[in-house]
Amino acid sequence: MNNSVLKVSCTGNNAFGTCFAISNTKNSTLFLTCGHVINDCNSGDILVDNRRAVVVENLYAEGLDLALLKVDDFIIEPLSFCGADDDQCHEVVGFTNLGSDIKKEKISKLRIKNDIEIIKKTLDVKVNAIKIYADEEISKGYSGSPIINTNSGKVVGVISLKVGTSTNFGIANSHINDLHEIEIYETSRVNNKKLNSELSTEEIYYIEKILDNEFQEGLNCFSSKNPVWNKPKLHSFDEIDVKGSVKGSSIEVDEIIKEPRSIVINSYQQHGLSSLAKYITKKAWESDVRSFWLYLDVNDLKPHNKDILKVVNRRLNKLKLKREDVSCVIIDEVSTSVKEIQKILSIINDIFIDLPLLIMMSKVDNDLINEEIDYDKIRYFENKYLWSLNRSEIRNIVTCYNSDKKYIDEDEIVISKLISDLQVLNIPRTPLNCLTFLKIYEYDFDETPINRTEMIGKILYLLFNVDLIPKYKSRPDLKDVEFVLGYLCEKFIRDHLFEFTRDYFVSEISNFCYDSDIDIETDVIFDVLYSNGIIIHRRDRFCFKFSYWVLYFAAHRMHQNHDFENFVLSDMNYTSYPEIIEYYAGIRRNSSKVLEVLYEDISKTRSNVENKCNMPDDFDIYSELLWSPTDESLSSVKNMLEAGAKGSRLPNEIKDHYADKSYDSTKPLSQTIHKILEDYSFLRLMRGIHSASKALRNSDYADSRLRHKLMSEIVYSWELIIKFQVLLSPIICRDKYVTVDGARFGLKDCFSDDSTEAMMELIPVIPTNVIRWFQDDIFSKKMGSFFYKNFKKHDRALALHTIALLVVAKRPIDWDIFIDTYIRGLDKNSYYLSSICEELYEQYQFSFASSKELSSIEKLIKLSIAKHDGVRRLNAKSINKVEIGVSPQRVE
């Protein structure tokens, strides 16, 4: 194979590239290279391995960067071709500079992404391309090199285009037929392979029992066996983006087992990723074609090849298997809160370069540690998403719990209350949250926790006061537990160290109890938390399974220790962990002090952003948009965008985009945006809003005037973020996304490819998107009247619209009356009427709504249409005349 790859050069200059043999005649060989290589070698004769060659055809000018060469009296064995497979390993062989010399070198362990379409706009040509992921640079001399499937030795494409220092693209071999007819063989998959080891019936059963036990243990909740398992579907889009995606775009887990490939399964914490990982491992072993999927918990791994191999070998030795038996690798507990996670994943990728990887990726809302993961530097991964539970899945949990554990009440009654409580507390519909409520219902079915703080407190009460504790141990008082653990969690936060040994845990709180004159068996605290899965084992240490436990106890500490309270509230330290503010406010629900601090911080940060950005006072782009935009209104919008950018103090790189049509679209924008986010305090403002929203939601008994003052400041900040996003929209639409310092602004695939069209699609939905970022932080079912009163304190159309969008999305008491009044007050052709109608459509189609709510939404949609159509008397009779065809189809 190596002998079939040769150097292309010329007699008149120093340019060179790579070519490879694809066919023979009686006494000659045809070679394939890139068209731009031939164009570079434009002086004198073309040479292949220093032999004169004839250019048979060069398609570069036609938009296809391929050329065919012929060398007479020279026979070289041609390479064969096969289809590309994203899940297999690849390599390239080519030529590059070595000082003043030229060397031939192979680059191995490449991963590819197939079926990328590159459109040559000036020539109206579409090229089927391959994106290449490499750890080392593939330099210019490799142009024309074959991309070779390592397993088969066959060619899948040709190296053609280089973007930056680490990204290369190749041309798929299907285009070679435009130059010379070739045969492309089907790629045989090596995945889901059978076991290499010969195992006895007893050994197979032994492994089956281990995998089943691990799965069952993963289902356990609060020291008792959980009988419930909902086999989930995996979706091709995030749950929050469901409105723009295709109905029914999901796959069963069995499909992945049957055809394994590299996938990142994304989900928020507590949605059951670990249980799913162990379920897949178990089902793969039990399948008709028995295969072994190696399960690795990333928390057991250190970022060193030797240590990871030690864990791998320990797992295989326990099951009496070999490396050759592994068909796929599942990497669990992956998140941005794992130290050096990028390095760990890269090492695993190198070890198992020929096998698919399944990554269970937890999205952590508020990381105590934050690391970046760049999957493009590892290999190509599909993305799948695990969603919240639907009603039928909640029904299954309740039915199983009622029959297997303590009977609570009739299934329908429990289901209705559970769904209602999840909505009232604005808590995700996850298995753990459902089981948490059911645990509470066992002992107190009639009462609903007021907020998440109280819900956690109720669980702790059950664990320490109701559940069994060894008779020879004294039962600790819950208030004492919260007091001593608050001290310990303060140390965790101040030291930014969240792992500990059992001895450290017990000795630290024992010493604190001694200093505080508290008599308590500290080891009981550890044992109860550990046996109930609140504290878990990681490598040779322990940690709290979820960060919210640390923040819950730390919030109690803030009420007990003014020095720690001041530490959290000063310099906006709370923005690193907004949940601590939520729990702090939720403990007493009258935290006027923290609301005042939050108001001052957000107000100051917002003013700082406004002063430095200096956006024009009259920058009100949504007043220019209409229900059905005309050419004149669109022109007005574009003019306002340009004027707004020029009048601001935004960096020149952004202003140039509006003024200079020859703006270099490949120029990196990260430094510019980083300057905005950092110097303009934009990211601090967004994090501050998250914290303030959580505090406001839980401060029912705080001074009402202060609550409204903070709410108004939050609304002002929403407006500023919306306007800022509008100014950035041309650049986001051009570059598709911008990622800086952990903040990512980007477009989904549902937007147009043309940047101008995409911008006009994006701007109308920016207010809805911004509210969606913050709505779950601020909303409580009890806050309806509060929102309605605050609405009356604003006179700016955009401010009023943000509150209306929040009310439609979350639907507190009397929401339909409020929105009815809002719609009637809008201009019939305004953007705001169109926007609220669109939001109602989406809520009808996709939201978790009761039949009564759906009826109200449908009536309001008809009201919006009637208003737009100019119906003079908007009474029930005229609204009902609106054709039923305007009502959207419900997606269940």
UniProtKB/TrEMBL annotation:
In terms of InterPro entries, this protein maps to: Peptidase_S1_PA, Peptidase_S1_PA_chymotrypsin
The source's superkingdom equals Bacteria
Stored Pfam families: Trypsin_2
Q: What is this protein called?
A: Trypsin
Organism of origin is Grimontia marina
